[in-house]
């Protein structure tokens, strides 16, 4: 497999990053994940806009976005699949370990690769997945898509050990998001999701799902909701680049609908139609 590293397309077996890279030492970096449909990047511009916001959020030097785009296109040319995922990571670069930022001449490390992606099975979509709730112990700048994801990793592992798909972060009784996806509920006929704050990642698929819902005339409320609201919802679903729109039918052992709901499936169908139409 070929990877893009600091301006060069090289074989993954020859790609090396210094052990003094700040991404390795401090998780000092940001990332993006972009879905590829029919060999086209979905919502590339929105992902790049979020990437630049994340970089600004950690005072990371600007990168050549044109070169970045060209590198991604070169990876796509080398990719032999139809559907896949582009992973893009930018760190503050390689410099001997010190908490303070390195001098300005140290350039960011830029890494990208493309891999194939398998959508969720029909059974998972029809029957939905199970989740648990966990206390939100992440830092207060979740809106930055940073590579420092240890709290998310620990929460996801707890979910896996309990035999469920994912964990949902809860802060002061209010639902935030899952470990790598935003979360929506349908309650009393209204589609609800928490508004973007410093504790919510502004998901691209979340944004697209809200636009589709508006186009479909679905009532929307961007407001916080509680765990109890989630337990009593008619429908629950997750949204994310790799998740797309994934129904949830069980939370903390409580059943919320026996199968995917009508709103969830409508939005999923519309999302995929949009993705393939654009591609």
Structure description:
With 279 residues, this protein is an alpha+beta fold. It has two domains: 115 residues, Aminotransferase class 4, branched-chain amino acid transferase, N-terminal domain (D-amino Acid Aminotransferase, Chain A, domain 1, 2-Layer Sandwich), CATH 3.30.470; 157 residues, D-amino Acid Aminotransferase, Chain A, domain 2 (Alpha-Beta Barrel), CATH 3.20.10.10. It is 30% helix and 29% strand. It is built from eight helices and 15 strands. The strands form two sheets. Strands 7, 8, 9, 10, 11, 12, 13, 14 and 15 form a nine-stranded mixed sheet that branches. A six-stranded antiparallel sheet has the order 2-1-6-5-3-4. Helix 6 packs across helix 8. The longest helix has 17 residues. The protein is globular and about 55 Å long. The protein starts with a strand and ends with a helix. The mean pLDDT is 96.
Total number of strands: 15
CATH homologous superfamily (4th level) name of the largest domain:
D-amino Acid Aminotransferase, subunit A, domain 2
Assign a percent range to the helix content.
25-40%
Sheet-strand content, in percent, reads 25-35%
Based on CA inertia axes, which overall geometry fits? globular
CATH fold naming of the largest domain: D-amino Acid Aminotransferase, Chain A, domain 2
Question: What structural category characterises the helix and strand content?
Answer: alpha+beta
Elements, N to C (H/E): EEHEEHHEEHEHEEEEHEHEEEH
Query: Compute the gyration radius: what is it?
Result: 19 Å
CATH architecture of the largest domain, by name, is Alpha-Beta Barrel
Total helical segments: 8
CATH class of the largest domain: Alpha Beta
Residue stretches low in confidence (pLDDT < 50, at least 5 long) are none
Q: What is the total number of structural domains?
A: 2
Largest sheet geometry: 9 strands, mixed
Overall average pLDDT = 96
Note the gap between the termini: 24 Å
